[in-house]
Amino acid sequence: MSVIKKRKKTTVQSIVRMKSRSERIAVLTAYDYFTAQLLDEAGIDMILVGDSAANVIHGYSSTLPIGMDVMIAHTAAVARGNKRSLLIADMPFLSFQPSLEVAITNAGRFLKEGGAEAVKIEGGIEMVPTIKRVVEVGIPVMGHIGLTPQSIHRFGGPRVQGKGKKSRAYLMESALALEEAGCFSMVLELMEKDMAKDITTALKTCATIGIGAGPDCDGQVLVTNDILGLREPEFKPKFLREYANLPPIITDAAKRYIEDVRKGDYPSDDESFSKK
Fold it and tell me: Model's pTM, two decimal places?
């Protein structure tokens, strides 16, 4: 009789070891209890409660409007559904930029109130003092460079990073500085694949997690809603691979339910209560 090996809890140190062993790291987003439970059971390495919730859950056009209280509520729901994956909470816009004290307090809230095990902070070398201080108080940090959605207006839209010498130098300098500051991993978003490969090779302990950054990162992350087709039809970035197309399935189920209700076929006698 075969013995099913019980999956161990993924930790920050697990991710560092995976990089050292050249084991690819799989990351997806979640914003609710049931999705987290399904992803965890599937064996995902890390679950990111992304500020992309602003887009795919709340219908905003950018990540900027979402705040701490909403993000903590999403994180706490995900934490209740997660058992083994490493849970990371995305620090939203203005939750860490104003001061070191604000950053530490809000990062701590994600651990205390949300049940997160790490936080993600956007920004390059300019965010080193903040990241270093958050790490020093015992909170693991995932960095995020390349296209940083909280700075979308500065970039002028979703533009690929690392094309010019100045951009490439900034990205490499930032990656090395973030590793030195204590990041255990970092997202590389929307950058030329050779730039992402160079960064991945240069970093010794910090795992790179790509999204639109080519195949040579230590791992990859996508938004779960996007890979299930639960997105705006016009949102078709080059890097997105759709693994299911749920909208027509959901629409069909709703239409059949509406039809059954209007015809009086639902609920049936078997679906109703009566005296015995």
Answer: 0.94
Domain annotation covers residue 72: yes
What is the C-alpha separation between 191 and 178, in angstroms, rounded? 17
Q: With a cut of 50, list the residues of the chain below it in pLDDT.
A: 1-4
d(CA 82, CA 76): 10
Total domains in the chain come to 1
pLDDT the model gives residue 3:
46
- Give the active site residues: 189
Angle between helices 100-112 and 68-81 (to 10 degrees): 30
For residues 51 and 66, give the distance between their C-alpha atoms in angstroms, rounded to a whole number: 7
Q: Is residue 29 part of a domain?
A: yes
Report whether the peptide linkage leading into residue 149 is cis, meaning its omega lies within 30 degrees of zero.
no
3-state secondary structure 15-56: HHHHHHCCCCEEEEECCCHHHHHHHHHHCCCEEEECCCHHHH
Examine residue 200 and state whether it is found in any structural domain, yes or no.
Answer: yes
User: pLDDT tens-digit profile of 212-228?
Assistant: 999 999 999 999 999 99
Instruction: Tell me, yes or no, whether 271 lies in a domain.
Output: no
